[in-house]
Amino acid sequence: MTRGLAPRDDRLGQEAALVARIAAREEAALREAIQNYAPLLHRIAYRMMGDAHEAEDIAQETMLRLWDNAEKLATRNSGEMKLGAWLKRVAINLTYDRLRLLGRMSDGEIPDRADDEKLADARIEDDQKHAAARDLISALPERQRAAIVLTYYEELPNADAAQVLDMQLKAFESLLFRARAALRKSFEAQGDAGGAS
Amino acid sequence: MSEHDPRTGQINRKDPDDAALVRALDGYAAPALAPDFADRVMARTKDRAAPMPDARNGRGKPWRSVRRLAIGAGVFGALASAAAATGLLDDLPIDLPSTEEVWATITGDTVPSTPAPRTNTIVEETGSADAQNRAPIDGPIDTPEELEEAFDTIDRLRENRRDDRRNRVDNRIDQVLERRRDKGLPAPDAEQEARLKQRLKEARNRRDERVDERIGNRRDELRERVEDGEELSPRDILREERGAAGGERLRERLEELRSLPPEERRQRLREFRERRQQMRENRLGTPDADPSVSEADTGIDGEESPQTSPSEPPEQ
Predict the structure, then answer these.
(1) Whole-angstrom Cα distance, residue B255 to residue B204?
(2) Is the distance from CB of B99 to CB of B91 less than 8 angstroms?
(3) What is the reported pTM?
(4) For residue B288, what pLDDT is reported?
């Protein structure tokens, strides 16, 4: 699920150059960034939110934040820049915001929302496996959810995922362990209830 | 933390134990982005408002602020300790209680008295430049020669202080004018400035004449007292020089004012305020100013009243 990329130093230089071009208001550069990163951001947001429209909104807002902040980013990171990490962090933070907003708007806890959405989701996907997997992820607290999405689905190394979440590596590993334990427990519970395939 | 823990370890796609979980998770496929996604983003960039500037404390985290405060407190403490250790505080006009005084306030004991400085000595504080020229006069003054020597010392001190004050005022005026000119604000031209300084000089001369006259009268009285065989203490002289008598006159006038009927008192105060207002308006050119208010209002150049010079506060 990861893209084949140039060697690390070259990639960081290219990303810095791309940001510099966006800072110069070169639309082709933003299109290039969208092409490179928007699908990834959309996937992350979708798996965390469980809603395709919300995910697309988040991906769009993230790219617009890049457009807005390109000048500052180019100034701070002349030469090298981890654009992907920055975009992922923005997308995840936006996702947190949306989840919390939804949590405030609904009466229950955030994980309960997955149960409420089953019918809507079934209308769109009609895929029991899909819904079951989404329920598993949605049952996790938001940070554990992000840890699983980044490491399992996007196959990020722990160090990179920790950087995206702005965490120390040890703290991230601890979070990831808790996330896996919660996921397995939830999966077992789902199996006991006959939900898992 | 082991990666091989079956409950918390990595979810391995190739591990048969994880096969069911992997199948479940992999069923969560994300849909593709809309084909016109990029076009929509580009369209949104057109009407995008400029981003907000960074908040002033945007990069600051609470612990950073705490750290800055701690560092600031530490630096202040170090500087204060260094200043105390080098005796700098002794040279500053800061009244720091001694250890004995602080202890006495805690224990309720009698505060140890500190020796009153210069009780019977005129030591002229003429500044470091001519500190070696100090002319202490010990003991009572009972001869005209000693009296004249005291007058000379006081005159020298007064002139030094007066020149120092006036230089400071002149410098301040020059700085203000320079600043205004640098900023392009209205400022007097060379001719106006010269006229202003001339009026200032004239006002100073008038003031000097008044002060000299007043002091001359007092000194004549002192000379008569010495000639009559009276012994004067330096404090007597200083009190006279500073116009302690003027303070007594002021008190007498206040007492007199209080004894007046309310209506008349109000009238007198009204007249006083009018005179003072008039003085303010004509501050730089009123040769016949009312002497009763001149001491307070002739400080046109920021100078202290002559009553507040020379060395010690008046002791009534």
Answers:
(1) 32
(2) no
(3) 0.45
(4) 44
* Torsional class of B243: left (φ above 0), alpha (ψ -120 to 50), beta (otherwise): left
State the DSSP code for B141.
B
A149 C-beta neighbours (distance < 10 Å), count: 26
Of all residues in chain B, what percent carry a pLDDT higher than 70? 61
pLDDT of residue A131: 79
**Partner-chain contact A27 B29, CB within 8 Å:** no
pLDDT of the residue at B92: 62
Cβ of A30: how many Cβ atoms within 10 Å? 22
pLDDT of residue A150: 92
Q: What is the pLDDT of residues B75-93, one digit of tens each?
A: 998 888 887 777 666 666 5
- The continuous run of DSSP H or E covering B137 comes out as strand B137-138
Structure tokens, B80:
């204060």
- Token representation of residue A18: 């791309």
* A38 and A88 Cβ atoms separated by less than 8 Å: no
Ranges of chain B with pLDDT below 50: 1-3, 116-135, 286-316
Distance from CA of B69 to the nearest CA of A (A): 26
* pLDDT at site A94: 93
For B121, phi and psi rounded to 5 degrees? -140, 135
Neighbours of B193 (CB within 10 A): 14
Which pLDDT band, with edges at 50, 70 and 90, does A62 fall under? Answer: very high
Smallest Cα distance from B26 to chain A, Å: 8
B121 forms beta bridges with: B138
pLDDT for res B316: 34
3-state secondary structure of B232: strand
Q: Which residues contact B97 (CB under 8 A, 6 or more apart)?
A: B105
Q: Note which residues in 78-107 of chain A have CB less than 8 A from chain B.
A: none
Residue B28: list chain A partners with CB under 8 A: 47, 130, 133-134, 136-137, 153
DSSP code for B260: S
Residue in this structure with the two tokens 């301040």, named with its chain if needed: B172
Report the percentage of chain A scoring pLDDT > 90.
35
The residue assigned the tokens 């205004």 is B180
Strands B137-138, B121-122: pairing is antiparallel
Q: Return residues 47-76 of B near A (CB < 8 Å).
A: 48, 50-51, 54
